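Q: For a teaching handout, I want to show students what a protein-ligand complex looks like in token form. Below are the inputs, and the small molecule is glutamine. Please produce the holo structure.
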Amino acid sequence: MIKVTLAQLNVTIGDMDGNVRKMIAAAQRARDDAADLVVFSELSLTGYYPGDLLDEPHFMARVSVGFEALLQASRQMPTMHWVVGLPAAHAGPGKPLRNVLRVLRGGEVLLEYAKQLLPTYNIFNERRHFEPGPDVAKVLRIGTEQVGFLICEDGWNDDGSAYAVNPFDRLRDAAPDVVISINASPSHIGKREQRHQIFAAASRRNSLPILYVNQVGGHDQLVYDGASFAVEPKAGVVFEARRFEEDVTTLRIDAHGFKAADGESLPAVPCEGLPTMAFYRQQIVLGLRDYARRCGFTQAVVGSSGGIDSAITLALAAEAFGPDRVTAITMPSVYSSAGSVDDSQTLCDGLGVRLFRHPIADLVQGYSAGFETAFGAPLQGLALENLQARIRGTILMEYSNTWGHLLLTTGNKSEMSVGYCTLYGDTNGGLGLIGDLYKTEVFALARHLNQAADREVIPRAILEKPPSAELAPDQKDTDSLPPYEVLDEVLKHLIEGHGLAHEEREQVEAYVAQLVQQPDGAALVDRIRRLVARSEYKRRQAPPIIRVRARAFGSGRQMPIAAQHF
Ligand SMILES: Nc1ncnc2c1ncn2[C@@H]1O[C@H](COP(=O)(O)OP(=O)(O)OC[C@H]2O[C@@H]([n+]3cccc(C(=O)O)c3)[C@H](O)[C@@H]2O)[C@@H](O)[C@H]1O
Ligand SMILES: Nc1ncnc2c1ncn2[C@@H]1O[C@H](COP(=O)(O)OP(=O)(O)OP(=O)(O)O)[C@@H](O)[C@H]1O
Ligand SMILES: NC(=O)CC[C@H](N)C(=O)O
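A: Here is the structure, written as tokens, with glutamine included.
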């Protein structure tokens, strides 16, 4: 029997000093639990993923200093093994670095294993910096057990579908008693269940118990949900760590599998994860909190239109920062409905968020007059519509500059897909919270927030009004776009592809198949396809958004702009 402590930590990319402090604190807890080893996540020393910081000599010099500090700390706890992840120099041909795991004890490195399968798809880009490790299993005796090692993607090819190499093959030959897998696995809807399924299958096929340790926390657009777990060949997933939080937990491993630190059996792990909207909420709140914390923001500002997008953005910001740290600004123009101000007031009163009023009619008039004087033509049509959005965007940026608030942009995935937003206007901002949610999902999230709180967090008037940009008289989104129920299904078909879970994919494909049978249905799909392609330039200039789906705009969908898309 050995005791192992999984250290699911929220490390910060590049903060080697802070990460080492966190790792040492977790190791001390492991020592207090009399653990034989403490396991940290993939690239735990640097945080995942450092990107081109890996090319900076200063960065790698700080990695060396941090690693020395870990070695030094391991001398103070001489009987315990530390499993740490870091980038390490590679002397052979190819890239100068490898993504490695080292086992330390008493100030010595007992083993080094280099990641073999380097993900370079979707949001991952590891082959840009790392050379793959050789197809060799590394196993070490720790106490009574033989322990084998894997790093994240190494465990994702046991069905042989993605790479020529399957690291499980060599590992199975080496026949360890248990496998430690260190990971940095970002979450999106369905990801936890996908991990369980892949690792339960690999555990069964190879007859190997596996302990899977993930990092937790938000890093730019990605959120890591933690949810580290243990899986046994026969029983499947037998343990799960906390989700969206740090967790340092000690388990026992023996010939019969995993047990709690005191030898008791572990509570059952539910198969089902969080319902979709509860998941979105937690993912976004953690993503925002960590983004703001790491960038030094303690307050946020949002333009409040009385519409659903700004309402949900304000509600999530109030949850992440606390309502007293969030400012809303309502900026009515001559086209704004009375509801835009009144509903904003009701919303902000309910949230406990301060609402400022800054009408823009005079500014619009002043700009228009200046334009006409200078150029001899009036501002009209789309240019006049966009001017309102840009004046609002400028006021929000000036507020942000003056008081140091993070401006949250409110675009959802439906409008970002088709470019239904004004550049340098409502796209202004530092971070988008709902940019990976389709408009129909924004409504569903609002209903979820109300249900969960058992009150109208999002007032009924906001939930029930037809979406409108209110930039022209009696304007409705449906004047320019198909109803969101239709648009969203077509967009999922065009954008999400294999990122959709099986059931949702079937639903979407069936919907689109029947739509194209309708008169004008095929033309509508074509029109939407063109809108998506043509608005790539807007998405390239848009702020980062928090990813909740497998295929989010940003690094996960790298499309050319000046190109023929179909
Ligand atoms: N490929 C390309 N690369 C770089 N720039 C490109 C470009 N194609 C056009 N452009 C430029 O982009 C600009 C046009 O884009 P932009 O100024 O944004 O304006 P535009 O896309 O023409 O109009 C904004 C649309 O969004 C709608 N809207 C606005 C605000 C809020 C909401 C809402 O409900 O949320 C909806 C509005 O009703 C209108 O349909 C022009 O300067 C054009 O030259
Ligand atoms: N009258 C307004 N006062 C303050 N901000 C506004 C106003 N109108 C628009 N905005 C800002 O611009 C964003 C885009 O708003 P718009 O109403 O044009 O479209 P939307 O995508 O339907 O958003 P929402 O559902 O929040 O209304 C809003 O979310 C809000 O941040
Ligand atoms: N860091 C990694 O290797 C992550 C890749 C892996 N397939 C995941 O998303 O979990």
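A: Two things your students might notice: The two ends are 59 Å apart (CA to CA). The first strand starts at residue 2 and ends at 8.
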